[in-house]
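Pasting as-is:
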Amino acid sequence: MTEFFAPDQQTPRHRLAFWNDVICATYAPCEATLGDLATFRASLQVSALGPLVVSNCVSVPITYDRRPVDLRRNPSDDFYAILMTSGETLVAQNAREGLAGPGDVFLYSNARPYQHHSEVDYTCTTLKIPRALAMARFSELDRFCGRVLSGRTPQGRIVGALMQEAAELGEGDPPTAAFLSALLDMIAASIESGLAGVEDRFIGGRNGKLLLQIQRYMRDNMENGDLGLAEVADAQNVSMRTQARLFADAGTTPMAWLQSQRLAAAYAALSERRVRNVSEAAFTFGFNDSSYFGKAFKKIYGFTPRTLLEED
């Protein structure tokens, strides 16, 4: 299903409010500001692709701010990839900022404050990815928020082409879950490859690298339901105390982080029909008790894991 929104039919003084409501409903609560209400024009075409949402936007210069108050009002945590097809915008998140021009892809999450600022007319294609599906594919999701993948790189061109194809898919018959899973795999792999080795100022220094190393080990072994913190610490040559402090500095605990990764991987497998039932999802991703898995899943996502298998 495709929807189209434009503020043209609104009175000039109501156009920005209408547009802000559309943006908040499509993406997440934020504040839109612009210089000249009299010349404001924009349009948005939105299509659902299974659990994904793809949209094409045309707009005059505008600024979007997702502020702390917006996070408290609606703690949405979806992940976004935005392909600039014309014009340019400055994106800032996670103490990073970058200028995205035609062909570039910038990345951000609704889970943290951000700002998009455009001083020229622009067009873009946006792919909205539920956080669980993104977490199942990116080794360290937050490392990519606030970054720009250049369209001059092979990986950037691949991501751009895939996103444009996704936009066309939104106008036709719904693709299969297997196809969407493969599409996300290709986009994620291209982004990770394209941004590999890029300086990370958000998670920096020796401690940051050590934390990422520990997290990679835990992700690689998440299917082991008996994986213990002592085993992880021993494998990474750190003390249990150091391991706990590294996760505390990131605002979590080792076991809470591991469970979030397991739940995200199970969410992706269920929604993409890569498992046949809830029990298989639980045991595949390290839960030794399917009943506990169901309760933990519902607490995080607000519905039971079986719901994903029952969706069309």
